Amino acid sequence: MARLYSTLLAGACLCAGALGKVFPRQSGNLPTVTSEGNAFWANGERFYIRGVAYQPGGAADAQDPLLDMSSLRRDIQRFTELGINTIRVYTIDNSKNHDEAMSMLDEAGIYLALDANTPEFSLNRESLDTLHQSYNDVYLQSVFATIDAFAGYNNLLLFFSGNEVINARNNTQAAPYIKAVTRDMKRYISAQADRSIPVGYSSADVAENIESQALYFACGDDQWARSDFFAFNDYSWCSPSSFTQSGWDQKVETYRDYSLPLFLSEFGCIENTRTWEEIESLYSQNMSVAYSGGLAYEYTLEANGYGLVEQSGNGIVPNEDFRRLKAAYAATSNPTGDGGASRQRSNVPACPPRTSEWNVRTENLPEIPAKAENYISNGVSNGPGLNAESSQWRGQPSETEPDLSDGTQESEDVSNGDNSGSSDGSSGGSSGGSDSDSDNDENGAAALGFSTVLLGLAGAAAAFAAM
Ligand SMILES: *[C@@H]1O[C@H](CO)[C@@H](O)[C@H](O)[C@H]1NC(C)=O
Ligand SMILES: *[C@@H]1O[C@H](CO)[C@@H](O)[C@H](O)[C@H]1NC(C)=O
């Protein structure tokens, strides 16, 4: 409980890292989780994500849910009742301290999967020009500050470097910028944190390019630019369905030999009453050979129609959806042993070819903006929080041309030597979840952080296919 936690904090020195930054040592009782081969591991055992997305209020006017202690305390009781081990939070305030929330979650056995972007501090996918402008040092300062704010908690499971930035068939050109952010986060973690932390991207399930995305974020010679996991938001299993009827059996075949841990960063189609039969398949040997679980979308009922608990006066009331999900989790344990995954897997796939559905013509990535390179060596000061002016039009962009013709393929190893294994990671970026508010950008440009209206509505894959 709080007791143990503070003992650990008190007993920890504020140690100067290899490069001089003062960084608190790890706190919390849960074992840290690493990415090795094509799965996650904790204490030498396979780790499966059994979770829910948690962003009360939705993504439109995002509030940090880890600052409201009385609501969080109440919600953690519900998380425990649901039997989950992970929550996903899309937006936090990186100017605030999170010791109390992370300690409470730790005591309840719950990890945090955290998006490193915020609505105002994210890439802008509208065009090559906006991507290039928004990939700047002011943006990366915020992402790195989020890493600083959370790397010290044992129960920080992973960082998302972006969420549904590519959300259609015509914006795959964002991929090199997302991959650059992933790379920069991994390098920052390696240089500034005391442990490795998995970093990867949470993608929209766009039927025409999802497999190219999975390959692209896993490929290439630069180990820093390769993700530590790949995740996608999958709403394709709509009750009543089955492993074969949903087509999830085909997806397992697609990803059976994939190089990275894979999981569902959101799931739970609401076309019909949700009975959550997909839980039984997701945590069976049928899927564990390639998948490491997932996050049910989402905890509080929002305008988009998803939700397990509903606001009632000052309190919350679990609905029938909550009860069915609880029953499904309770009825399904994790597969035993390694579940068919391999800790030793070390294949690196070839990068996907350019096609009419995958508009990425080079393996080059933009170089990190010069000032942000300094941050990797020297650390960053406090994060800007949620009220600062958007980073998208300020800051110094990369010196690489927007078409990436003079970009980089290899990045310098800045590891401090403590965590040079395959699982170092960092990365940040995030976006806003599948809420239905996607027009957060006054300029009409879709901000990276904010996911698509489509997924928030239903039948994402079908909707994309129809575009
Ligand atoms: C993609 O298509 C949509 C809808 O036609 C459009 O609003 C958007 O600007 C396009 N994005 C890019 C990057 O071309
Ligand atoms: C596992 O796969 C088999 C073969 O496709 C299928 O018959 C069975 O229902 C699946 N079980 C689960 C729990 O998905």
UniProtKB/TrEMBL annotation:
<dbReference type="GO" id="GO:0031505">
    <property type="term" value="P:fungal-type cell wall organization"/>
</dbReference>
<dbReference type="GO" id="GO:0098552">
    <property type="term" value="C:side of membrane"/>
</dbReference>
<feature type="region of interest" description="Disordered">
    <location>
        <begin position="375"/>
        <end position="444"/>
    </location>
</feature>
<feature type="compositionally biased region" description="Low complexity">
    <location>
        <begin position="416"/>
        <end position="425"/>
    </location>
</feature>
<dbReference type="GO" id="GO:0005886">
    <property type="term" value="C:plasma membrane"/>
</dbReference>
<protein>
    <recommendedName>
        <fullName>1,3-beta-glucanosyltransferase</fullName>
        <ecNumber>2.4.1.-</ecNumber>
    </recommendedName>
</protein>
<keyword id="KW-0472">Membrane</keyword>
<keyword id="KW-0808">Transferase</keyword>
<comment type="similarity">
    <text>Belongs to the glycosyl hydrolase 72 family.</text>
</comment>
<keyword id="KW-0732">Signal</keyword>
<feature type="compositionally biased region" description="Acidic residues">
    <location>
        <begin position="400"/>
        <end position="415"/>
    </location>
</feature>
<dbReference type="InterPro" id="IPR017853">
    <property type="entry name" value="GH"/>
</dbReference>
<keyword id="KW-0325">Glycoprotein</keyword>
<keyword id="KW-0449">Lipoprotein</keyword>
<dbReference type="Pfam" id="PF03198">
    <property type="entry name" value="Glyco_hydro_72"/>
</dbReference>
<keyword id="KW-0336">GPI-anchor</keyword>
<feature type="signal peptide">
    <location>
        <begin position="1"/>
        <end position="20"/>
    </location>
</feature>
<dbReference type="GO" id="GO:0042124">
    <property type="term" value="F:1,3-beta-glucanosyltransferase activity"/>
</dbReference>
<feature type="region of interest" description="Disordered">
    <location>
        <begin position="331"/>
        <end position="362"/>
    </location>
</feature>
<feature type="compositionally biased region" description="Polar residues">
    <location>
        <begin position="388"/>
        <end position="399"/>
    </location>
</feature>
<dbReference type="GO" id="GO:0071970">
    <property type="term" value="P:fungal-type cell wall (1-&gt;3)-beta-D-glucan biosynthetic process"/>
</dbReference>
<comment type="function">
    <text>Splits internally a 1,3-beta-glucan molecule and transfers the newly generated reducing end (the donor) to the non-reducing end of another 1,3-beta-glucan molecule (the acceptor) forming a 1,3-beta linkage, resulting in the elongation of 1,3-beta-glucan chains in the cell wall.</text>
</comment>
<dbReference type="InterPro" id="IPR004886">
    <property type="entry name" value="Glucanosyltransferase"/>
</dbReference>
